[in-house]
Amino acid sequence: MLRTLSFAALTVCAMSVQSLEAEESAKANPLPTAIQPSSISAAPSAPGQDLYMVCAFYPKPGTCESVYQRAMKDTNITAQAVRAEYTGYARYLSGTRSLTDADRQYLKDNGIRVPTDLSAVNQAGLHRVINDPSLTPDLKRGAVNNFISRAVEAELYCGFNDCKSADVETAKTGFGGAASQNRSS
Questions:
Q1: HSE-up of residue 63 (Cα within 13 Å, Cβ side)
Q2: Whole-angstrom Cα distance, residue 177 to residue 68?
Q3: For 135-140, which contacts have Cβ atoms below 8 Å and span 24 or more sequence positions?
Q4: Pairing with 178, which of 64, 66, 160, 184 sits 20 to 30 Å away (CA)?
Q5: Strand partners for 50
Q6: What's the CA gap between 52 and 76, in Å, rounded?
Q7: Is the pTM of this model over 0.90?
Q8: In this predicted model, what pLDDT tens digit does every residue of 44-98 receive, in sequence order?
Q9: Helix, strand, coil percentages, rounded to 5, for the chain
Q10: What residues does each domain of the chain span?
Q11: How far is CA 118 from CA 46, 80, 161, in A?
Q12: SS3 166
């Protein structure tokens, strides 16, 4: 728990520094109008909120599905993080299976440590990554580590941004598209 809180505090500090650096950089080199964050803003329920930012950190049910679809076609640099979030994390979140003994053995054999407090939805997603038939053995280890990293990032995001019942809603809604082609085994 202390390690998780320390990591969370470190992450917040790093994000704050990056935010300040980005703000200073934006003042010196403003973005072209075509890629201003305000061009991709949220629905009236969250005025001014940047959906690419939200969906790059946390796959908000009922919101990010269409954002992921748009980002897959978007060539702007701002869409890259959203595409990476979907392909490495969100697409694995449908399903309810938990980690199996075979999954745990794979993690152990590959020296991959999993946070003890990983949510049930993220454990189900991790199961899906480990058992994804489209991943070659060479790519699987990286995909598993990427998923775990993004899962921790999403849980930290929710810890600071109050994503109530997110795990339950995410498990119910899934994320369509490639997720429906990648059902849990």
A1: 24
A2: 9
A3: none
A4: 160
A5: 41
A6: 11
A7: no
A8: 344 334 888 888 888 888 888 889 999 999 888 888 888 899 889 999 998 888 8
A9: 65, 0, 30
A10: 1-30, 39-185
A11: 28, 26, 17
A12: helix
